């Protein structure tokens, strides 16, 4: 390797030169940086430490701000680290903190450097290496340097000690066994009066308590003292965090803490501390009515403030309160609703969440109505946020809050027509899900589906495609509820369906298939007998005929009371005549003919199926319309049997399928499941997993015939349907070829109206007041005297709605960490640290020792061994503290005494307890291994 | 851990200082900074200073042309972090005298050093300006 020349080091560019060069941008940033990197690569090989360190400094700059890899400098960084000069060390530590991580290969080599600097007399060097340790410590480093950190925990230099305390957190995380060594000293620091130390030790405990609060309950008296005495807001905030974790675990503790927290709440001037108090009260002390009232009062101040920060936090706090105290939200509802139109999207979302928290069975429709109107005028992001939360709230727990499913289904239809709607998939899932689960809603579902399918403009919006596929599926599956299957057929086969992706087009064709079979079935198998075709012969099919259906609607409404007679099918079958069937068949041929050559297999195959049945039935239809029935008797029977068969197949009801359904199917003989098919992955790699809308056939519950539709309300929403039917009519005009012949002529307009013409704009302005009123009403716990109609049955499966059993999580490191903490805090200190075990072995009673060994948890023992191997030095120190430790623990358990200022009293009782404790220990040597530690009665 | 990272970013979205308290690869950092900067710089004065991003909460504040962004755990106290940012700015102000973007660019090392005095392993360990600055002053004297 050629050594660097003198020139190189003399004319080395400094970091400042680099920064200046970057600012001037003479040759472009990338070019400049790569030139600089080339220089650095050379310079970093220099034997001169200042050259090397300058190169390292430049490199960490480029890495930090310009994302350039500096892993190649790992070893040079270590070399610079060994420099005796502080400025070099600083650069090296900085670079190492930035670039080293668990898989850096030279990480092992740093241990000794760190150890040396941790033991240094220069407090700044110690600080640097602690800082570095806090960033890069892994298991090995944490284990090897535990003794040094332990020593520093009681350093008399505050500057060092507070840093050592902060590092302990990382050491504990990486190497839980270090808890046995360091925990006592950490706890001792809790009693330090210096605010700096206290601040960092409280910080450590608040992090520890986050992960496993229960382990730190015995320290509650110490925390309590800090809470009461603390003058620093920062420390108070951290202690409050600890208490908000501990209080829910121990009611007596909550009772004690509530008073000081309320005092702080009343008296503090700092908003940050105030907010922390509020949060503590609403999360952990929500049983204390007076405290909650006080906190909600402060929240109100936040909400009224002009500062958006306070407003946001106030809304957040309110959301936490809402879980248990809904009154808090209703008291502030004006502000919440006003925030729905705030300038800040984050605030809007928070208030939306709160509004959703207020939703109940009684007000869901009103609130949804208002929110949908908000959605119409919002920006796309917030619009979808609103729709998403409506969808998730309404579908919660199997549509728990929905009573009127007809309303909900039409809401879904309406939501999908909102211009910015991108929730297509969710709407799709819910439409299908409701169709499967709620029998009574199917007629309305078909109506909504028709309304969506019939509008050619919707096909142009790709976000709606999945909704349309659900609509197509529903209209095919439940075609018997359709008032006009022929019109449905037109909608399903309209030319603009070519805009759909093939998978959804397949669903369209399949639905058309079902509709066709249904029509044929009504016409041939039952049609003749039910409706005399002669009288309806001239009835024009399609839209223009809607007027004449009125009579049928009336008919069915009139007979609504007569439960069993009126079936949906009777209405539907009315307009289907031989002639219309012929037209229908022609239409199918015309529309699907071109699809026989489709590139998509699914589309092609389904089109073929459909055309197959057309081919099969067409001759007969033609025959029978020309000749008398008797002639084609033989063949006709055959065809109608096929149609009947098909129809029966389709009318078998689909039900929701349990997630675990497959598990119930017994494994057929000869099916090999365990064989490795890894090599198939290459071939099958791009096959999509089955989508949610593929359902297996099966009838989980028996179909009940003669279902009552007495509660079916036929909502002749004439205005709306006229609007969309006129769209279709328009289309018919242009592409008359694709439609069934219609008698009347229709109006022609120039173009399609815009896809989603929101017609509901008018009442947006008074939304705010509206919502306020609604929620106000809803929050009064009024009983609705009687629902218009009973809530329909929602089919539930036994297991489908439970979440699949969650995987048991493997025990994490945290587990072992808190385990270690508990060992130290609860009685177990008698055995675990090696010191006490060696003490035990000095005792003469060998018999007891044997017993002791037997009952020691083997897990524990193995851990001790690890300590034994790794930490002989720490063991020595530990032993010297053993005595003190034993005295301390009972003291901690006496909460009342903590508060007692009389020193003598305290001393006395401590001794008393200590004695008591040691006697206990002698009597019951086996108890120490008890698995569930008893929480000491520190509050009594 | 409390604080996960601290960023200083100028109006153009260029990072001027980045301090992470957990290990992220360069690529992860680049992506994270890009996303956060885009999110926060798009917001205006009337909007609140808190943004949720992935599993972090970002607390940010703008001083002249510089944005100070702090990524914290979800249950960290937002207002306290705002106070921390203000303390940081005041400290730098005291040291540099009316601190500006250029000061941080050319004295990145010092800025880092100040941060290290204040924050250790993601938790704030020092809140006194005099205490934060004294080691730096010592070092300046020595060199």
Automatic annotation (TrEMBL), chain A:
Which residues lie in coiled coils?
none
Biased composition (Basic and acidic residues) is annotated at 801-814, 853-866, 893-908
Tell me which UniProt keywords the record has, alphabetically. Golgi apparatus, Membrane, Protein transport, Repeat, Transport
**Would the keyword Membrane turn up in this protein's UniProt record?**
yes
- In residue numbers, the region (Disordered) covers 801-940
Q: Ranges of Basic residues compositional bias?
A: 874-892, 909-919
Q: Which GO terms describe its cellular component?
A: AP-3 adaptor complex; endosome membrane; Golgi apparatus
Compartments annotated for it: namely: Endomembrane system; Golgi apparatus
Q: Which residues form the Clathrin/coatomer adaptor adaptin-like N-terminal domain?
A: 29-508
Q: Which InterPro entries match?
A: AP3_complex_dsu, ARM-like, ARM-type_fold, Clathrin/coatomer_adapt-like_N
Q: Name one GO biological process term.
A: protein targeting to vacuole
- A UniProt-annotated Pfam family: Adaptin_N
Instruction: Mark out the compositionally biased spans (Low complexity).
Output: 835-844
Q: Which domain of life is it from?
A: Eukaryota
Share what the entry says about its subunit structure, partners included. Answer: Adaptor protein complex 3 (AP-3) is a heterotetramer.
What this chain does, per the entry, is described as: Part of the AP-3 complex, an adaptor-related complex which seems to be clathrin-associated. The complex is associated with the Golgi region as well as more peripheral structures. It facilitates the budding of vesicles from the Golgi membrane and may be directly involved in trafficking to the vacuole. It also function in maintaining the identity of lytic vacuoles and in regulating the transition between storage and lytic vacuoles.
- Similarity comment: family membership: Belongs to the adaptor complexes large subunit family.
Its protein name is: AP-3 complex subunit delta
Upper taxonomic lineage: Eukaryota, Viridiplantae, Streptophyta, Embryophyta, Tracheophyta
From TrEMBL, chain B:
Any GO BP annotation: intracellular protein transport
Q: Where in the cell is it found?
A: Endomembrane system
Q: Which residues form the AP complex mu/sigma subunit domain?
A: 3-142
Which GO cellular component terms are attached?
cytoplasm; endomembrane system
Q: Which UniProt keywords apply?
A: Membrane, Protein transport, Transport
Name the domain of life this protein comes from.
Eukaryota
Q: Does the keyword Membrane apply?
A: yes
InterPro entries on file: AP_complex_ssu (IPR016635), AP_mu_sigma_su (IPR022775), Longin-like_dom_sf (IPR011012)
Q: Which family does it belong to?
A: Belongs to the adaptor complexes small subunit family.
Q: What is this protein called?
A: AP complex subunit sigma
Question: What is the organism field in this record?
Answer: Hibiscus trionum
């Amino acid at each position: 390797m050629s050594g660097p020349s003198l020139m190189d080091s003399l004319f080395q560019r400094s970091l400042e030169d680099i920064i200046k060069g970057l600012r001037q941008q003479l040759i472009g940033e990338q070019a400049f940086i790569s030139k600089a990197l080339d220089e650095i690569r050379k310079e970093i090989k220099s034997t001169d430490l200042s050259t090397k360190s300058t190169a390292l400094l430049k490199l960490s700059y480029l890495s930090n701000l310009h994302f350039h890899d500096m892993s190649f400098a790992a070893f040079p960084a270590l070399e610079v680290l060994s420099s005796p000069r502080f400025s070099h060390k600083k650069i090296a530590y900085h670079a190492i903190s930035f670039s080293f991580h668990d898989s850096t290969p030279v990480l092992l080599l740093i241990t000794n450097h760190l150890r040396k600097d941790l033991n240094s007399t220069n407090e700044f060097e110690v600080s640097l290496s602690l800082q570095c340790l806090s960033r890069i410590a892994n298991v090995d480093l944490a284990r090897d340097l535990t003794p040094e950190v332990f020593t520093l925990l009681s350093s008399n230099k505050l500057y060092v000690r507070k840093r050592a305390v902060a590092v302990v957190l990382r050491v504990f995380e990486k190497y839980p066994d270090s808890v046995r060594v360091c925990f006592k000293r950490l706890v001792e620091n809790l009693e330090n009066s210096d605010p700096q130390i206290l601040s960092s030790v409280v910080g450590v405990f608040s992090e520890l308590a986050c992960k496993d609060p229960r382990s730190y309950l015995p320290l509650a008296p110490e925390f309590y003292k800090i809470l009461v005495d603390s003058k620093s807001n920062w420390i108070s905030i951290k202690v409050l965090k600890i208490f908000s974790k501990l209080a829910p675990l121990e009611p007596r503790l909550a009772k004690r803490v509530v008073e000081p927290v309320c005092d702080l709440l009343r008296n503090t001037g700092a908003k940050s501390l105030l907010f922390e108090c509020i949060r503590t009260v609403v999360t952990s002390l929500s049983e204390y009515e007076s405290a909650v009232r006080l906190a909600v009062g402060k929240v109100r101040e936040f909400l009224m403030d002009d500062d958006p920060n306070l407003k946001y936090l106030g809304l957040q706090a309110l959301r936490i309160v809402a879980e248990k105290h809904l009154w808090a939200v209703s008291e502030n509802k004006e502000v919440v609703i006003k925030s729905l139109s705030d300038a800040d999207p984050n605030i809007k979302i928070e208030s939306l969440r709160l509004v959703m928290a207020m939703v109940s069975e009684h007000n869901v429709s009103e609130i949804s109505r208002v929110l949908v109107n908000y959605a119409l005028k919002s920006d796309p992001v917030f619009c979808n946020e609103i729709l998403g939360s409506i969808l998730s709230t309404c579908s919660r727990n199997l549509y728990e809050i929905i009573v009127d499913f007809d309303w909900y289904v039409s809401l879904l239809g309406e939501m999908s027509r909102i211009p910015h709607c991108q929730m297509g998939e969710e709407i799709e899932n819910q439409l299908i899900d409701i169709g499967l689960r709620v029998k009574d809603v199917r007629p309305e579902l078909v109506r909504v589906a028709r309304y969506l399918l019939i509008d050619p403009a919707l096909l142009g919006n790709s976000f709606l495609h999945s909704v349309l596929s659900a609509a197509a599926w529903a209209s095919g599956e439940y075609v018997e509820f359709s008032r006009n299957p022929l019109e449905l057929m037109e909608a399903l086969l309209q030319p603009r369906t070519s805009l759909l992706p093939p998978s959804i087009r397949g669903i369209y064709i399949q639905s058309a298939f079902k509709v066709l079979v249904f029509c044929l079935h009504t016409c041939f198998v039952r049609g003749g007998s039910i409706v005399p075709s002669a009288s309806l012969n001239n009835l024009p099919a399609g839209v223009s005929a809607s007027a004449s259906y009125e009579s049928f609607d009336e008919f069915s409404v009139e007979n609504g009371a007569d439960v069993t007679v009126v079936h949906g099918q009777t209405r539907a079958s009315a307009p289907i005549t031989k002639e219309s069937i012929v037209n229908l068949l022609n239409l199918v041929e015309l529309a699907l003919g071109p699809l026989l050559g489709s590139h998509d297999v699914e589309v092609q195959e389904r089109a073929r199926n459909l055309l197959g049945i057309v081919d099969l039935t067409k001759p007969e239809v033609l025959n029978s319309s020309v000749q008398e029935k008797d002639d084609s008797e033989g063949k006709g029977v055959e065809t109608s049997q096929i149609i009947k068969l098909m129809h029966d197949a389709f009318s078998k009801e689909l039900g929701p399928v349990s997630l675990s359904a497959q598990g119930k199917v017994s494994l057929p003989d000869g099916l090999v499941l365990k064989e490795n098919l890894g090599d198939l992955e290459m071939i099958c790699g791009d096959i999509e997993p089955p989508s949610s809308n593929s359902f297996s056939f099966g009838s989980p519950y028996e179909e009940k015939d003669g279902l009552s539709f007495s509660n079916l309300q036929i909502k002749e929403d004439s205005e709306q349907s006229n609007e969309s039917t006129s769209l279709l009519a328009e289309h018919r005009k242009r592409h008359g070829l694709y439609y069934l012949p219609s008698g009347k002529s229709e109006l022609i307009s120039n173009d399609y109206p815009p896809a989603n013409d929101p017609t509901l704009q008018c009442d947006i302005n008074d939304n705010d007041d509206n919502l306020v009123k609604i929620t106000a009403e809803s929050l009064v716990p009024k009983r609705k005297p009687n629902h218009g109609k009973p809530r329909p049955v929602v089919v539930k499966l036994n297991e489908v709605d439970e979440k699949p059993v969650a995987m048991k999580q493997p025990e994490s490191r945290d587990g072992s960490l808190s385990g270690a903490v508990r060992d130290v805090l609860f009685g177990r200190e008698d055995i675990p640290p090696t010191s006490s075990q060696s003490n035990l072995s000095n005792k003469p009673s060998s018999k007891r020792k044997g017993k002791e060994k037997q009952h020691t948890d083997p897990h524990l023992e193995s851990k001790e061994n690890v300590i034994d191997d790794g930490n002989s030095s720490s063991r020595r120190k530990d032993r010297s503290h053993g005595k003190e430790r034993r005295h301390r623990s009972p003291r901690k358990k006496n909460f009342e005494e903590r508060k007692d200022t009389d020193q003598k009293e305290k001393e006395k009782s401590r001794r008393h307890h200590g004695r008591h404790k040691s006697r206990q220990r002698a009597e019951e040597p086996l108890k120490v291994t008890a698995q569930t530690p008893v929480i000491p009665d520190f509050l009594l | 851990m409390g604080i996960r990272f601290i960023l200083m970013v100028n109006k153009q979205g260029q990072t001027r200082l980045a301090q992470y308290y957990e290990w992220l690869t360069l690529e992860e950092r680049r992506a994270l900074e890009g996303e956060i900067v885009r999110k926060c710089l798009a917001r205006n004065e009337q909007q609140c200073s808190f943004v949720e991003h992935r599993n972090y909460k970002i607390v940010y504040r703008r001083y002249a042309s510089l944005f100070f962004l702090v990524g914290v755990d979800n249950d960290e106290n937002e207002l306290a972090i705002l106070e921390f940012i203000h303390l940081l700015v005041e400290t730098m102000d005291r040291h540099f005298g009316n601190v500006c973007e250029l000061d941080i660019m050319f004295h990145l090392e010092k800025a880092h050093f100040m941060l290290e005095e204040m924050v250790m392993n993601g938790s704030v360990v020092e809140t006194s300006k005099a205490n934060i600055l004294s080691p730096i002053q010592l070092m300046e004297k020595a060199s």
